[in-house]
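Repro case for the chain-ordering regression, as requested:
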Amino acid sequence: QVQLVESGGGVVQPGRSLRLSCAVSGFTLNNYGMHWVRQAPDRGLEWVALIWYDGSNKWYTESVKGRFTISRDNSKNTLFLEMNSLRAEDTAVYHCARLVAARVPGTINYYYNMDVWGKGTTVTVSS
Amino acid sequence: EIVLTQSPGTLSLSPGERATLSCRASQSLSSTYLAWYQHKPGQAPRLLIYGASRRATGIPDRFSGSGSGTDFTLTISRMEPDDFAVYYCQHHGSSPPYTFGQGTKLEIK
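-- result from build under test --
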């Protein structure tokens, strides 16, 4: 059974740091890219970061560049999100999601979907 | 950066009724990279539709997606009690960033 379980959330003061983890099971992590997506209170989903299957490429949404770092330990089947210089606007439920690539029939293009998600871990940034 | 605008914000329906959700893009985009997700409070979001019209694995055929260019639609042919949730359209190009619409909430009438 494919499963993603996030942990590491909590209440933290502005300017402090927090490290989130996403433990995966039921599949081999090193075959997949992985995302972090967040949902602030009473807001919609917001993509945060993506790491390639081997960690060779990383992308971030503009508002977290220079503060957040996505990483992975494929040997431990775990994805991480290191969050520094936290702000009140980073308060959210953070989900990890698996990136699956599937060839578009008859083309050289690929679908890139978030096909499995975790339930999330809550981060609250408050003094 | 492409902005996705979903409408309506909230849709009140009874079980058995048809739901039509709209997602409008600020510029024309490739349907290859347009997806729809379902999200219930406290649960993991679920991929419903990818490539604008392809159902993900295990998704019932009452869910369908359509559209091209700037206008995309998610249709639920007959609402079931389990379908009341928030629905998001999502787009990405050949590389990030990924963009979500603001969501449409389907509530029981």
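Ordering looks correct now. Chain B touches chain A at residues 32-33, 35, 37, 39, 42-47, 50-51, 54, 56-57, 86, 88, 90, 92, 94-103 (CB under 8 Å).
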